[in-house]
Design brief:
alpha+beta; Butyryl-Coa Dehydrogenase, subunit A, domain 1; Butyryl-CoA Dehydrogenase, subunit A, domain 2; 3 domains; 8 strands; globular; binds flavin-adenine dinucleotide
């Protein structure tokens, strides 16, 4: 958030300055909105756009000035979001680079780490992602079995991570690894800065059913990590990982102030307009059932907007704990699935096989294939429900037989053979 040394500029003059700069320096976007998704081309373009924002003094509005940001307030960020909505922005960098990794470094990095990495992040020169989930399961994050072993020059990392969005086109990752097998599972983890493209790391892209190649799996074969790359304290990586997840929930739920423009792709307003166009384009604008579906999607979007304002404001004033971002994330994930269903129902057969004239219907068909992703990314819906019950409502913690026992002694996952044999 805004630092104490912030140069305060009133919102009206900031709006005017932003409006003029955007008109002079950025391109307007068409009806299809911001480009979304990781690819070589989208990331290369995003690096250029982020560099332009930095040069213009509009990158990292809520990051401290001493770390390359502008030291402004979330209110300035909201103003800028309104002004930049019609312009091409580096949206692909918003999740995870700017709203998850950078804020976690800000919270837990040493002063040297912040000076070294944050300005390069805000300039779009070095892109960051997260090495968190493992092939044996992502929900049980405290059970990670990728290991970092101390040696004379720092640490040696071995194991495997998966579902790392954009790893092949990025530069650095925050990686959670087990450093003490005698400590209970939450107390033997450490978070490291890992340079992605270096000897010992193999990055493989994963092709999904919808054709997307955003996900990667990485294999670590005794990767050397210097001692200064520990983030937070050795064996206290759980604190860093918990904060990272908090930033991720806020980011996905829409409550972050660390990036400009849409979190990913189209806004819900844009999606809403699309459904009306889709109904018209498929000749169903007068169909009562279809009108009901469009109205339902509209109501879900409107409630989401109000929920965001209410919970976002509550977290800002301390009325709600930071973990309340789980409410926003859960709502977005569950209603996102319903909205995907509605889109495909209206698109009908054109959502399965389409031509250029019916491209919009095809988009709903493609979206349907990944409709579950919002309920997994950044922690599944079941995990959000646990967080809401235990850390927002204060209900008793779920029983865990392994909580206080040495991790090496409790039943835990094993790295799949393919990963350890490489
Ligand atoms: C779009 C997207 C982007 C992602 N990006 C990244 C990334 O950049 N980096 C990264 O490291 N990971 C990333 N992930 C992975 C994500 O963090 C995991 O998918 C998530 O944590 C769930 O882990 P899993 O897929 O292994 O499912 P599992 O943990 O195997 O869970 C499968 C199902 O079982 C349920 N379940 C598991 N345990 C319990 C329990 N104790 N109680 C009740 N239900 C339970 C889960 O809720 C889920 O429904 C991404 C995922 C998606 C979809």
């Amino acid at each position: 958030m805004a630092d104490e040394n912030a140069v305060s500029e009133d919102l009206d003059s900031f709006r005017q300055r932003a409006r003029e700069w955007l008109a002079a320096n950025m391109s307007r976007v068409g009806p299809d909105g911001q480009p979304a998704g990781y690819s070589d081309a989208s990331v290369a373009r995003a690096r250029i756009l982020q560099g332009k924002l930095f040069e213009g003094g509009f990158a990292g509005l809520c990051f401290p000035r001493e770390h390359g940001g502008q030291g402004l307030s979330p209110a300035h960020q909201r103003v800028f979001n309104e002004e930049c909505a019609a312009y091409e922005m580096p949206a692909v960098l918003n999740i995870c680079h700017l709203t998850i990794l950078a804020p976690t470094l800000l919270d837990f990095g040493t002063e040297e780490q912040k000076q070294r990495y944050l300005p390069a992040i805000l300039r779009g020169e070095e892109l960051w992602i997260q090495f968190r989930s493992e092939p044996t399961g992502g929900s049980d994050l405290a059970g990670v079995i990728t290991r970092a072993t101390p040696d004379a020059d720092g640490w040696l990392l071995s194991g495997s991570k998966i579902w790392s969005t954009g790893a092949d086109v990025s530069d650095y990752a925050l990686c959670l690894a087990r450093t003490d097998w005698d400590a209970p599972k939450h107390r033997g983890l450490t978070m490291f800065v890992v340079k992605i493209h270096q000897p010992g790391i193999t990055v493989e892209r994963i092709k999904q059913v919808n054709g997307s190649m955003e996900f990667c799996q990485e294999f670590f074969d005794d990767v050397r990590i210097p001692p200064e790359n520990v983030v937070g304290q050795v064996n206290d990586g759980w604190s860093v990982a918990s904060r990272l997840l908090l930033h991720e929930r806020n980011s996905i739920g829409g409550a972050t102030s660390f990036a400009s423009g849409p979190r990913r792709g189209r806004s819900s307003d844009g999606a809403q307009r699309d459904l009306v166009e889709l109904a018209k384009g498929t000749g169903q604008a007068d169909d009562q059932g279809v009108r009901q579906l469009v109205a339902e999607a509209h109501v879900l979007g409107a409630v989401q907007g109000h929920l965001l304002q209410r919970v976002g404001a509550g977290m800002g004033t301390g009325h709600f704990p930071g973990t309340a971002g789980a409410i926003l994330k859960l709502y977005g994930a569950t209603t996102g699935i319903r909205r995907s269903d509605i889109g495909l129902e209206i698109a009908g057969t054109a959502g399965v096989a389409w031509n250029e004239d019916r491209r919009m219907a095809g988009q709903y068909g493609q979206q349907y294939l990944s409709k579950q992703s919002g309920g997994l990314a950044g922690g599944s819906n079941e995990m959000q429900r646990n967080i809401i019950s235990e850390r927002v409502l204060g209900m008793p913690r779920e029983f865990a037989a392994d909580r206080d026992r040495p991790f090496g002694e409790v039943k835990h996952n094993r790295m799949p053979v393919r990963a350890v044999e490489r």
